[in-house]
User: Fold this.
Amino acid sequence: MTDADELRRRTDELLAAYPPATTGTLDFLRARFDAGLAWVHYPQGLGGLGAARSLQAVVDSELAAAGAPDNDPRRIGIGLGMAAPTILRHGTEEQKRRFLRPLWTGEEVWCQLFSEPGAGSDLAALGTRAVRDGDTWVVGGQKVWTSSAHLARWAILIARTDPDLPKHQGITYFLCDMTDPGVEVRPLRQITGEAEFNEVFLTGVRIPDSHRLGDVGDGWRVARTTLMNERVSIGGMRLPREGGMIGPVARTWRERPELRTHDLHQRLLKLWVEAEVARLTGERLRQQLAAGQPDPEGSGMKLAFARLNQEISGLEVELRGEEGLLYDDWTMRRPELVDFTGRDAGYRYLRAKGNSIEGGTSEVLLNIVAERVLGLPAEPRTDKDVAWKDLAR
Assistant:
């Protein structure tokens, strides 16, 4: 078994062979992956050592103390949090070895081609088609709300391969090269003024069958692995006390006593406690992950994340009064990442509105928590056994 002492020894060897002060960032990250110190719970040869997930903190703290570069996880969050665990669980050995290393080092950015204009909350109703042509699949359709599509080299994609089956069946999961002919990315300007999201049009895109993930028709099961990990990665981020959205509000409260009122004080106390409860619950969830795959509890964390962000950002705007109505920059940009704490209160307030939509709408997640966590009776679903082609649209 690989223990903490062994990981420290391996980390010291990495630092001795590749001193951060004289080694390029990419060279260091590649060496770290090859040494099994990227994600220690992954198998040997795939960036890990088969160690306990909880021991990752040992490696991270040693490298941080030595000034080693990281892989800028916020920029490649979709790859790290969604694509990688899905490829690890459902991919072939060839797919794992081809994709996981450049994904982790940040050489290849990933995006997620799931939602469609007519299949958002009801994702299984998707209509993007993939038709087999020998050893390739010809894909046509439209995807929407695609973060980082303007930066991505690869995408995780689900498409309908058999319209004669019910909607949750007949779906297949693919890895799509975003540089292939027929892939068109268009920006979607948001309420913040930025185009962080995109819509993606797929016209006769040819995907080799070797880039299919899982069996033909088994895409919904594979996609559930992605969705469970997505909700954990959004709602279960590791934060220090007063990390995230509550931090700027608490600092303003301490530094600007002239803004304080009794009502705002009571609301701030309530939200501070709830943010701390959510932070500790997230820590417990990460400890549970060390024992296996994420369960639907991640949906509850994502729900809390969305509600708290919206309530806290609203309180911050009220606390700042007239200042809260200011906005720093409406320039149309296509950013590489979302920076909640590096911008002003107006940005946080506007951007938080998307938290209850992205990564699964709050309404859908409430159903998941009710049915899969609390064990309540499922809602009636009259279309569950109806062929997709016969569904009313």
Summary: The first strand starts at residue 110 and ends at 113. The chain has eleven helices and eight strands. The radius of gyration is 22 Å.
